[in-house]
Amino acid sequence: MVYLLACQNKLNSYKQLTELPGAVIPVSVIISARNEAENLTKYLPNILEQQHPEFEVVVVNDCSVDGSDVILDAFQAKYPHLKIVNVTESRKFKTGKKFAVTMGIKAAKYAQLLFTDADCQPASAHWITRMAANFENPETEIILGYSPYYKTGGLLNSLIRFETIKTAVNYLSAALRGNAYMGVGRNMGYRKELFFKVKGFASHMHIMSGDDDLFVNANATKYNTVIEMHPESFTFSEPKTSFGAWFKQKKRHMGAGKLYKGKHKRMLGADALSGLLFYALFFACLAGKPLMYVAISLFIFRWVAQILVYRKQFTTLQGKDFIWYLPLADTLYYFYVNIFGLVGTLKKTNQWK
User: Fold this and answer.
1) For the chain, which domains are there?
2) Where are the transmembrane segments (predicted)?
């Protein structure tokens, strides 16, 4: 309840700019793509045709063997503001996404950078403008956006979408409180100067994941980080369609969490553990009559509090449908987030694709 009311409720104070920003901030959009021929064909035009006066799109073709080079060359002939960076497999060392992102940043023409993935589609033609407008403040070095998953139906899709929304509520509200701890590479931005000032990903290059959250965790401050939550600034992604693929993805993501700052690990750990214990003790109390009515009363009280806090947030974050079955979704969320957290801490992963 403390975490819900004191931390997550902060997001309800966010005031989004309704009118389209008039500032023209030149931007380089960077996309790392490994064997993404199908997604590049489907989604890249939506990036290249953004209604923004001055921008380029830098696609890093990272060791692809699926014909991505042919597709990118065809796009480049049509869109002169597309820049292609080709990375080839090295026998001496294994390249990863951080290496690809670094090559893209070095090739970028502009000082302001936006990041997304090859399987992402902007919610509008004003995605770049909405995100880039935050760079108008010279103190802003990091911009945290939001990237929901498409609603396709089924249990797995519901789990993925709900967890994405809860994660967004956590990291966006934390940023508003001056305690930013992560961002999502499907939709974020930062200044090129900051990247080189902190020597890029040098401090965590040995971890395959973390090009987004670990970079933010290490370099975000109370004053240099802002969030962008206008629906036109979202980027939608295709969710995993099998539990195996989802498990592999979550294991990779959670593995980076062990390198978070201590205060952030304690904050996230307290939320995850308290949520799990709440539901575990609730079901345990149902077995004993003297405690059953007290437990049910507390359960309903918490549910009402969640509705009051989450109603506006979930509506904005494309999850309005979860409001009325929060107890079920929330129970499942705290169960598997603790499992993934434990697995991610113990296991190692050596690939990003």
Assistant:
1) 15-241 (3.90.550.10)
2) 290-310, 322-343
